[in-house]
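Obj: model holo form, ligand = flavin-adenine dinucleotide.
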Amino acid sequence: MSDTPEADFKIELRSDVTVELVKHTASDADVLFAARVSTVGEQSLDELKKDPERSKGLINYLMRDRHGSPFEHNSMTFLISAPIFVFREFMRHRVGWSYNEESGRYRELQPVFYVPDASRKLVQEGRPGKYRFVEGTEAQRELTARAMADSYEQAYGTYREMLAAGVAREVARAVLPVGLYSSMYATCNARSLMHFIGLRTQHELAKVPSFPQREIEMVGEKMEAAWAGLMPLTHAAFNANGRVAP
Ligand SMILES: Cc1cc2nc3c(=O)[nH]c(=O)nc-3n(C[C@H](O)[C@H](O)[C@H](O)COP(=O)(O)OP(=O)(O)OC[C@H]3O[C@@H](n4cnc5c(N)ncnc54)[C@H](O)[C@@H]3O)c2cc1C
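Output (holo structure tokens):
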């Protein structure tokens, strides 16, 4: 019989990220409305919808010539659940973003951790700045899954032990790894989102290629899909002009 007490927690392993558009005021008409004030003054939203071809042309012109400010008069709030290492990269995006993240000081962090699934390439080949990722062997995949699960189990057990001994949550959390899931609200506008997507996704239409970490790219892809549904003309113009934020 083992002397080790049964763990009073169960580790949950996830490989996904979730992105929910929780609120928005964002449409292509918001871009037109802002842009046309400079030439025709105030216009109603109904009037803006009268000539769709002209609207498409104007949005494309603004994107092509990098007149960025008309793309700022809109707002999207996303609820994102992803590992802490993704948020660490995400929060480098300072301009046109507001963040609120769950607290490790005010609540006990839950044992939900990241493991790569079979689609995640594990091995980097080549030198910095000129590299590619390849699948990796079965042994590397097995080691990664086992090492992560063991390490998460041990770290979370230590966290719980410290809490049970009366150590404050804000101190005990230091033992938890960056594979722990967190959640945050992130609010942005189309211009700041385009800048984020341009850097954090890889796309054949990008005229300036970027090489983001796959896990933040998964978040970027879901945000882009939600945004494309709200602002289809702006999204099409972004793609047509090389996916560079105006
Ligand atoms: C593939 C990739 C690899 C990366 N690797 C690393 C890394 O190894 N180490 C690391 O530290 N970071 C790394 N980063 C983060 C990167 O350096 C940027 O911090 C991040 O992409 C945010 O970009 P940004 O500053 O343009 O965005 P934002 O902060 O949102 O800024 C938007 C724009 O506003 C302007 N701006 C904002 N702040 C200033 C300022 N203070 N002065 C002047 N202009 C400003 C710039 O035009 C900027 O592009 C990496 C990013 C990517 C995409």
